Every structure is written in C-alpha cells, then in structure tokens.
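Bug #2210: token dump truncated for Thioredoxin domain-containing protein?
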Amino acid sequence: MNLLLLLLLALVLTSTNGFTNTVVSTETASLSRTRIFYQNEDSAVQQHVVTAPATVVSPSAPIKKPTIYPLSTLQELYDFLNEDQRLTAVKYYAPWCKKCQRVGLHYKKLAYDYGDGVVARRAVDGPIRCAEMEYSDVTAHVMDALQIEAVPTLQLYRGTKRIWESGTSRVQELTKQVELLLQLQPHELDEFVERCSLDDAGILEQAYEDSFFDNGYCYDWEDEAACV
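Reproduced locally. Full output below:
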C-alpha cells in the first residue's frame, strides 16, 4: 500500500514540474539577442528574450586629398608666392623623368601631412603650401631664369624669398627643414628668412624684373629712355 502511494506521488510531481528548455542564439548587424524557449509536456511554448547592448562602430575618419598647385609661368609663380606668407614648397620636374616620379610620391606625402587639401568636399589649409612646375617648352625659359640646373629640384620659399633648395631632391631633407621651421616663433622665422635671402641673391626677383623687358614692358618709369 505504501509503495503504491509513493508511485502515485512521483507521477504527480513529474507531471507538474517536468520542463525541458532549449536555447537559441541569433545575431543581427546592430544587436545580439538570445531567445530562451521553455516547453512543457503540454507543448505550450513560453519565450523570454534577452537583448545585449548593441556594438557601436565608429565611422572611418574622412580622407584628406592633398592639393599640389600647378604653375606654368613666372608670373604665376611670383603671384602665388607673393599672396601668402606661409612656407611654400615648389617641385620642378619632368614627366618622363623616372627619378621625378619617385620623388613625386614622397612629395605627395609631404603635401598630405603639411599642405592644403580637401576633406569631405571642403578645402582645408595646412601649415604650408605645395606647388609644382612641369618642365616643357613653355616653362624651360622660366627654369633657366630661376637657375634650375636639373630636374627634379625642390625649393622652399617664404613669400618670394627662397630659403632652401636641394639639387639632390631628397624630400626627407625638405620635410625635416619644414618641421624645424614650423617650430620657430614668428620673429625667429623672420630672422631666418632674412639670413637666407642674403644667400639667395634675389634670383626670383631679378628674373621677374627681367621678364618685363622680355615682354616689351618698361620697368624704369622715371627714365623712359632706359626702356628703348
């Protein structure tokens, strides 16, 4: 009799508390959810959803497109240098020159790090400007007037004062010079430019003045006879 009662009691407990569970995990691009299904013997399904915090993905930083200003005449070079007192790097090159092509890659990196550019369709100013002049039949006389003996050649100006030049065309040397000058105080930079301009001998200024005579213009307005 007692054994029969124990069997009946065990049957009742099994019918009321017997549950099986199944765990299913799903993930989406924005969040992760874990669904836990509880199923009893009557096939009634209960669902509990646990939502994990969404993973925030930061958008990639906008990419800067460096700006290297093309120049083709002495007038363009003079006006470009004279309109801004920032340091200005100028590269003289030829499209058929293999070394110029290698230097051009490093020069573009300099323009990316320190020069003007475009970010998210907006023009941004850098601490320096970068320009270039391609050797051609049109620009050959300009390079002669500036005493450019070979390509590639790199120069660094502040205003119309040339303060650095490299015939070996090592952009690394130009980069180091730029970094050093950008650390100077304004008055220290002015003093440095004055010292360098004495060695420059005013080559650009002289070439620009001579271009007036080459184009038939009179530069000496006080003595018209000097223009004949």
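Output looks complete on our side. Residues 66 and 108 are 7 Å apart (CA to CA). Marking as cannot-reproduce; reopen if the truncation happens again.
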